[in-house]
Design goal:
12 helices, Glutaredoxin, mainly alpha, 4 strands, Glutathione S-transferase Yfyf (Class Pi), Chain A, domain 2, 338 residues, 5% strand, binds glutathione, 4-stranded mixed sheet
Length: 338
Amino acid sequence: MGFVIPLILYNIIITTSIVLRLLSSSNMSKITDWASKDGSFHRQVSRFRDWISSDPKSKFPAEHNRYHLYISYACPWATRTLIVRELKGLKDIISVDIVHWHIKENGWEFRKEDGATGDSLYGFTYLKDLYFKANADYVGRYTVPTLWDKRTETIVSNESSEIIRMMYTEFDCLVAKKYTEKDYYPIALRSQIDEMNDWIYDTVNNGVYKAGFATMQEVYEKEVLFLFKSLDRIEKILGSGKYLLGDQLTEADIRLFPTIIRFDPVYVQHFKCNIGMIRYNYPNINRWMKHLYYDIPGFKETTNFKHIKKHYTKSHTQINPHSITPVGPIPDIEPRDK
Ligand SMILES: N[C@@H](CCC(=O)N[C@@H](CS)C(=O)NCC(=O)O)C(=O)O
């Protein structure tokens, strides 16, 4: 009998250590851990890459009330798709649900509070439930925007840069002429838009994340310097034209706006992108941003500063462990004619 108690103790110790190991390894792959071991942030390549088409015989034909967008007001990539949905008159054609601003261990959550809508299609609790409904074996992150097909009950696309391009033209047979006339990706400017998208995506749209999620000093410094070099370049470009490519609003502006509108309220302090502020150091970018926000329907309507500020500051606890949301800057964006 003398060996029974040591044996029980031994078993308890072994079991506890296994549980602790499991807990710590699941901790390491938490959904809210964003940087890799090299201290850099690498954005996942989107997995669902189908296309809606104007061709009625295609796999995903453009139809009234067939597609549904799941978005977050906090997310700059999702906001692009909301902006284009407004600009192209698709509000009555593509329905929308808005996730709650707080991302936790299970990813984006559906909650009917604070301006979030809940999941109006299935009443799911998490965005990930949709990913598994679309593909029970799905492995990857559960990201917004998610473009859902109500007919075949699957995800068409979770890549914002492609969703906005589908919206430019594929639904044209269903909207009024004033919307079909709007071309945000005109053939004559395509190569210039693509070229601009490349460096702006890398150093600005994704650049703020690469600076903010860096877990090594030298990685952060490298990224933040690239970012401000690009902002200086954009400032110069907007000094000689109303928009990034002259006097026509294009995709390049649409893709830049969600990053710039978040810059002073969030990226300056939360992502340490604080070499300058848009309102004090970049007068041309500031004027351009205010023009889009105040003068062009679709930009202000899709900007929700409450979701933006709360999401970043309360979800990224590795950056802001106490989840305190800074009060300033006040106001979130300057008045139109300051
Ligand atoms: N490539 C995607 C990126 C989307 C993306 O990263 N969305 C973020 C929010 S800003 C997300 O949903 N993250 C949740 C996660 O990674 O768990 C796109 O542009 O559509």
